[in-house]
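Tokens in:
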């Protein structure tokens, strides 16, 4: 790995120096998310580095350090990737050339499989270490220990493993239908695994003594299961042979230039962008407040083990619904109706969760929680496509493409909503007098606050999202604009 990192650093430094010689102010972006959904629905990727000058955009995507410039002529996937970067760069410079560099490493296991296999061992070590903080250390030392291994896990080993895992979708098959199926199944199994973990973790910890040592044992069990399943996945497949005809390709594509300030102005003028931003904000607030479920189960329902059942009620309908969403959207001929109808159903179900809670009926709470989750899954499955349609609306009304800016700015809703939701949850509990330390009971004010946070606020957020979705008929607006152009 040291050799690969050295090669990567040397290569990138040389490319940056070349860029600075040809351009006074080159743009250098690390780990850049690339949006190509204009060309393929829900198509996104992450480049290791993007260098943008006033003459060219250089996409660098290496795994093992050794880079060669490649042609996209015979590779539609690379062409789409390059076009996504081109759209992202158009607001900065008039780009005449797109260069693409990938690794050309030959190993017995292929390109991605080694990086899926070995970093996961690091994931396992770090995950166990997070639950094995020495209890005899001081608080500062414990926090430092946790921070080091947490960063190594998420920023290092997990990133390497997950990038390779994602890349395998393209490396094991060239059939687009198979790639779509792989992506869908990956998402379904992710939800399934999450559901199982949430359902059994508290029970396992209780079985092993409900102590810090019990958490270490459970973490070790998960690490062993993870390493075994990851290794089986790596060894049970084979990457396709690489294309041998890789040459340099330059594509002349004139682009209209405008500043990021102008792009921001275009976003603000796009009412559908503002609606999507509001939806993101509210859905993240919803997630944050339902996240106090652990406290609600423990102190209101008096059974922490119920958290596993409620997690199942949330995730299983979501998994089933996501499998059905593409078919339903195709039959209905669009996303608008299914999105607002689904959230209207979710709103009614969340109101009935409140009724069931005050009746003291946990089974009814579980049933209506499941119905609410099913109602939310259409938007969960097609929101990226809605964003792409909103970007088309900007193009149809202004003649300018801002796909990358549209997607990156929309993530503001995730960051602001998630951050505010988490912070406000903590503030509200603290204001109510929440007692930390695993006490058996909480003050009555805390119980009231938990009812408001877990029952009432999620229902309100669902109702607000439903209202916004009734206004989010971007497909109809785009069709009207296209028809007016043809008239």
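Residues out:
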């Amino acid at each position: 790995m040291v050799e690969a990192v050295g090669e990567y650093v040397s290569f990138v430094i040389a490319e940056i120096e070349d860029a600075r010689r040809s351009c006074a102010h080159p743009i250098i972006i690390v780990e850049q998310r690339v949006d190509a959904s204009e060309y393929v629905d829900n198509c996104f990727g992450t480049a290791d580095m993007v260098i943008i000058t006033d003459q060219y955009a250089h996409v660098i995507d290496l795994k093992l350090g050794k880079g060669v410039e490649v042609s996209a002529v015979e590779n539609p996937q690379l062409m789409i990737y390059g076009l996504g970067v081109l759209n992202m760069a158009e607001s900065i410079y008039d780009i005449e050339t797109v260069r693409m560099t990938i690794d050309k490493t030959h190993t017995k296991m292929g390109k991605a499989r080694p990086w899926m296999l070995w970093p996961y061992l690091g994931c396992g070590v770090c995950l166990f270490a997070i639950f094995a903080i020495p209890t005899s250390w001081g608080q500062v030392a414990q926090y430092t220990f946790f921070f080091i291994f947490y960063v190594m896990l998420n920023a290092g080993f997990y990133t390497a493993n997950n990038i390779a895992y994602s890349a395998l979708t393209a490396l094991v098959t060239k059939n687009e239908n198979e790639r779509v199926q792989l992506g869908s199944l990956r998402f379904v199994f992710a939800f399934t695994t999450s559901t199982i973990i949430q359902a059994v973790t508290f029970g396992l910890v209780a079985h092993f003594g409900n102590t810090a040592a019990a958490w270490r044992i459970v973490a070790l069990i998960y690490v062993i299961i993870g390493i075994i399943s990851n290794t089986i996945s790596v060894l049970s497949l084979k990457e396709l042979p690489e294309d041998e005809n890789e040459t340099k390709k330059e594509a002349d594509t004139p682009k209209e230039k405008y500043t990021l300030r102008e792009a921001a102005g275009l976003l603000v003028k796009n009412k559908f962008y503002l609606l999507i931003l509001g939806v993101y904000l509210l859905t993240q607030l919803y997630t944050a407040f339902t996240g106090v479920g652990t406290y609600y189960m423990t102190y209101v329902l008096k059974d922490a083990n119920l958290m596993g059942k409620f997690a199942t009620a949330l995730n299983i309908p979501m998994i089933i619904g996501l499998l059905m969403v593409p078919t339903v959207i195709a039959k209905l001929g669009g996303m608008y109706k299914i999105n607002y109808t689904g959230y209207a159903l979710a709103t009614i179900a969340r109101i009935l969760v409140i009724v069931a809670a005050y009746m003291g009926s946990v089974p009814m709470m579980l049933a209506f929680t499941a119905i609410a989750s099913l109602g939310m899954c259409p938007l969960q499955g097609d929101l990226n496509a809605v964003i792409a349609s909103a970007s088309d609306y900007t193009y149809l009304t202004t003649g300018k493409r801002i796909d990358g800016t549209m997607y990156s700015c929309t993530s503001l809703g995730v960051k602001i909503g998630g951050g505010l939701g988490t912070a406000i949850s903590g503030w509200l509990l603290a204001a109510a007098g929440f007692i930390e330390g695993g006490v058996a009971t909480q003050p009555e004010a805390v119980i009231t606050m938990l009812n408001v946070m877990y029952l009432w606020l999620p229902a309100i957020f669902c109702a607000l999202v439903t209202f916004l979705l009734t206004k989010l008929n971007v497909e109809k607006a785009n069709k009207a604009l296209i028809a007016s152009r043809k008239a």
